[in-house]
């Protein structure tokens, strides 16, 4: 396999992961879904952030569970690390190249993570409901 084939395969795998995560968030009616392409930002912690909001700790927990289950079932992948599930105010699901941040709305507003990574290429996903 040539280097270009490996890179194209990795890109396709990452895009499939992003698509599956967004689908899982939409399944549980996550709001304000944004995709941040950090691949061109020097020293970023991941290539992609996916950020969304839930209305309660119950919904935030359900969103995280939906992401993990759909990715595991459909792509046979598991997160490298998950944190924040104790109180479900801000749950982070880390797939290494793609990191999902699931916030309660007021916590998202407080930390304003969008501003921190404002120089990233940002795609806003419209709600399907």
TrEMBL record:
Primary residence: cytoplasm
GO molecular function, one term: ribosomal large subunit binding
A GO term from the CC aspect: cytoplasm
Superkingdom classification of source: Bacteria
Protein's cellular compartments: Cytoplasm
Residue stretches spanning the membrane: none
One Pfam family of this chain: RsfS
InterPro entries, per the entry: Iojap/RsfS/C7orf30, NT_sf
GO annotation terms (biological process): cytosolic ribosome assembly; negative regulation of ribosome biogenesis; negative regulation of translation
Sorted UniProt keywords: Cytoplasm, Repressor, Translation regulation
Subunit: Interacts with ribosomal protein uL14 (rplN).
Family: Belongs to the Iojap/RsfS family.
Functional note: Functions as a ribosomal silencing factor. Interacts with ribosomal protein uL14 (rplN), blocking formation of intersubunit bridge B8. Prevents association of the 30S and 50S ribosomal subunits and the formation of functional ribosomes, thus repressing translation.
Listed PANTHER family: IOJAP SUPERFAMILY ORTHOLOG, MITOCHONDRIAL ASSEMBLY OF RIBOSOMAL LARGE SUBUNIT PROTEIN 1
Protein name: Ribosomal silencing factor RsfS
Organism: Chryseobacterium oranimense
């Amino acid at each position: 396999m040539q280097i270009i084939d490996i890179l194209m395969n990795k890109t396709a795998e990452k895009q499939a992961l992003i698509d599956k995560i967004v689908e899982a968030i939409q399944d549980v009616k996550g709001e304000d879904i944004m995709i941040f392409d950090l691949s061109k930002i020097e020293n970023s912690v991941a290539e992609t952030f996916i950020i969304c909001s839930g209305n309660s700790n119950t919904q935030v927990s359900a969103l995280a569970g939906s992401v993990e289950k759909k990715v595991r079932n459909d792509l046979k992948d598991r997160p490298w690390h998950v944190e924040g599930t104790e109180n479900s105010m801000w749950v982070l699901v880390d797939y290494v190249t793609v990191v999902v941040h699931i916030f309660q709305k007021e916590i998202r507003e407080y930390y304003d993570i969008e501003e921190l990574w404002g120089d990233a290429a940002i795609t806003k996903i419209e709600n399907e409901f």
